[in-house]
Amino acid sequence: MPKRLISRIALAILLTVTVGIVSYYLLGRKLETAFIAGMCGNTLLSEFQSPNGKWKAVVFERSCGATTGVSTQVSILPVDQDLPDGVGNICVVDVFPKVDLRWVGNNELVVTHHGGAKLFHAVQSFEGITIKYEVPTQAASNKSLDRSGGAFLNLIDRIESRM
């Protein structure tokens, strides 16, 4: 075989393999992510609108089946957007911790969580909004156990309805 033909065949094989690898990485990863996300579900627990009415902060429960358990998550969304099926864009906390949200002006959100909660994901800012994380003092933590509102009340109601 002529040397030029061998070079063209080698180039065609190399190009085919490269396109295949890139296609798998770009398309295959997206399909895999979509498949896994399709197995998960989000349940809105509470939402808090920003003072200027532009944003809402939402607390929701995310469950991806028996093998992964449940987590409490927080997202900031435009006020007219429904809760998407994805993960929280602000923070992800372990199973059933108490999470409360409080807007401090239009550009600051305070996330209050139990001191024993594991934060798996916690951003410090989002779209110009500063995110601060607080752990309540023991007295405040005990007082919050009276089910006086917020995401905790919704969470307790959901747990009790499952029993």
Describe the structure.
The protein has 163 residues and is α+β, with helices and mostly antiparallel strands. It folds into two domains: 1-38; 41-162, no CATH class. Helix content is 34%, strand content 33%. The chain contains three helices and nine strands. It has helices at 3-38, 138-144, 150-162, and strands at residues 41-49, 55-63, 70-78, 91-93, 99-103, 108-113, 119-122, 125-126, 129-134. The strands form two sheets. The protein has a five-stranded antiparallel β-sheet, covered by helices on one side. It has a four-stranded mixed β-sheet with strand order 5-6-9-8. Strand 5 (99-103) and strand 6 form a beta hairpin. The chain starts with a helix and ends with a helix. Mean pLDDT is 78; it is low at 29-37 and 139-149.
Approximately how much helix is present in the residues?
25-40%
Strand order of the largest sheet: 1-2-3-4-7
Structure annotation, total helices: 3
Taking Cα atoms only, what radius of gyration do you get, to the nearest Å? 23 Å
What percent of residues are in strands? 25-35%
The coarse overall form would be elongated
Number of distinct beta strands: 9
- How far apart are the first and last residues' alpha carbons, in Å? 76 Å
Name the structural class: alpha+beta
Characterize the largest beta sheet: strand count, sense, and whether it forms a barrel.
Answer: 5 strands, antiparallel
Write down the overall mean pLDDT. Answer: 78
As for the number of domains, it is 2
What's the helix-strand series?
A: HEEEEEEEEEHH
Low-confidence residue ranges: 29-37, 139-149
